[in-house]
Amino acid sequence: MLREGLLYEDDVILTWMRDRFLQDLVLGRTQNIENVKEGLSCLNLNPYFTYPALALLEPDSSSADEHERIPRTEEIRDYLQQRAMRGSIVFMDDQNRIGLLFSWASAGHLEAVQGMLGQRFGQPVNIGVGKPCSRLRDVHQSYEQAARALQNKFYRGTGKIIHYSELPPYETPGDYPADMEKELHDALKAADTDADIEEAVEAFYQALLEQGPIDIQAMYELTARLLIGSEKKLLAGVNYDSACNKCEVMSIVKMETLEEIKAYVSHFFVGVRGAMLPDQKESHRSIIKKAIHHMEQEYQAVSLQSAARKVYMTPTYLSLLFKLNTGRTFIEHLTHIRIENAKKLLCSTHYKNYEVAEQVGYQDPRYFSQIFKRKVGLSPTDYRESVGK
Q: With a threshold of 0.85, does the pTM exceed it?
């Protein structure tokens, strides 16, 4: 048993050393090719490549929070290490993406790799592929290209293999399209149904992209400006639960695809339209009340997706209604419920901290302690002592 523990520890250290060495290589920190080959050999990795190239793999993270994403990526990396193309090297880069260093002749196997991972883990895997290099020391160029290719999932969608060589040039937007915004507002005011709003949003983005794809960061900025400006203009004078809260710009920049953004913008304007129609306000309050009741009953396992199913809405729309009606995001409200229940357990039971964490829906006790201290100002242990339990 002791020997097995030492072997496992050695494996962990070896994996860490391989990751660090490969990170230095793909970031261009290693120039001496002989040192590279020697280093790879010492780490029991293949040092010989013919036209080396780099691919970056990233599981679709739309359904997972940051706390879940990294362990899942590590799990995929470990699985792929045992099944990747012969002679290739699998590692984690410094942004927690999976790197795959391979000889260009094996590029045709990437589709099989993607299919294998999708089937095993039940979620799409995005792959960005750089161009092949003539020398291993230049693989940092292929890495940079793979990263740019991976970003293009914004336009191409998730679950795709995107080659850098196929990327179109991005256009630089000029002035903010105020005329397009006005047309969108006019269409919103004339809309009779949610579908009309979705069509208007689709037309807005089609017009934006008429000359070709826009730099992705610029698209985030344009969208944020559209939503913040629209909220001010369309809800001016509307008393919606005292004040209408600002849309969450941070929610936008975390979205991975243009389709996600368009869906969010459509739901945002549906919510704005509802705020402008008096008969919709009570309906929205009823929906939020039902969702909160569900959260209070099922706080150990509830998620935005399950709550949305309960009230027959999309997660994005429910999230928006929460912000508009309560001033809190769904996650903020759920965290409040969980922490309040944790405080009750700490006061009334002798559960250990990790047991309290599990009881209120946190599988990682360290993460629970961080959240608890952030919200309460004391660690769970200090809080328990302060109330004399």
A: no
Q: Is 16 exposed, middle or buried (0-12, 13-18, 19+ CB in 10 A)?
A: exposed
**H or E segment and range at residue 268:** helix 258-276
pLDDT tens digits for range 86-95: 899 999 999 9
Question: What's the CA gap between 317 and 286, in Å, rounded?
Answer: 15
**Whether residue 3 has pLDDT greater than 50:** no
Phi, psi of 370 (to 5 degrees): -65, -45
DSSP letter for 128, please: E
Task: Give the helix, strand, coil percentages of the chain, each rounded to 5.
Answer: 65, 5, 30
Query: How does pLDDT run across 26-41, given as a tens digit for each residue?
Result: 998 876 767 888 889 9
20 torsion bin: left (phi>0), alpha (psi -120 to 50), beta (else): alpha
For residue 80, the one-letter residue type is: L
* Separation between Cα atoms, residue 14 and residue 382, nearest integer Å: 39
Average model confidence (pLDDT) across the chain:
85
